[in-house]
Amino acid sequence: MSYSPDSAKKVDIDPSKKTPDIAALTHPENQLPGANIRAFRKAAGMSQRKLAETCKPPMDFTAIGRIERNLGYTSSTLNRLAVALNCKVSDFFLPAELIVWKDLPADMQEEIQTLIRRYYQAARKS
């Protein structure tokens, strides 16, 4: 798996937050995995160099910058980044609105799931 768009808008992330800033990710140009990777890195308080060193095996920190700008990546690289950032590769491809799902309390997740099930069932009956 490889992706190389011409450009991606930079995302400003508040490093004091534990989760990525959803508002910064809502621009269409920021819906690519690079913006989400950058958001997770910033939320973890890591520099590109620190993230590169945390990967197993370590990678060159300049590769992190290229990946965050969506200038190319492989599935192997995404797996290494996900492990280093303590998330799933699929998190890199989530719409911005769903990134905080895992941080919601269990009762809130349950309530949302129930509402979605009810809506889905009602839609199927129509």
Topology:
Elements: H1 22-25, H2 33-43, H3 48-54, H4 61-68, H5 75-84, H6 106-125
Helix pairs in contact: 3-4
What key phrases describe this protein's structure?
126 residues, mainly alpha, elongated, disordered N terminus
Describe the structure.
With 126 residues, this protein is an all-alpha fold. The protein has six helices and no strands. The chain has helices spanning 22-25, 33-43, 48-54, 61-68, 75-84, 106-125. Helix 3 (48-54) crosses helix 4 (61-68). The longest helix has 20 residues, at 106-125. The protein is elongated, with a radius of gyration of 16 Å. Residues 1-15 have low confidence and may be disordered.
Short description:
This protein has 126 residues and is mainly α. Helix content is 48%, strand content 0%. The termini are far apart.
For the largest beta-sheet, the strand count, sense and barrel status come to: none
Radius of gyration: 16 Å
pLDDT averaged residue by residue = 79
Quickly count the helices.
Answer: 6
Structural class: mainly alpha
Distance between the termini: 39 Å
Order of helices and strands: HHHHHH
| Strand elements, count | 0
Low-pLDDT runs of 5+ residues are 1-15
Principal-axis shape equals: elongated
- Relative helix content: 40-55%
Could you tell me the strand content as a percent range?
Answer: under 5%
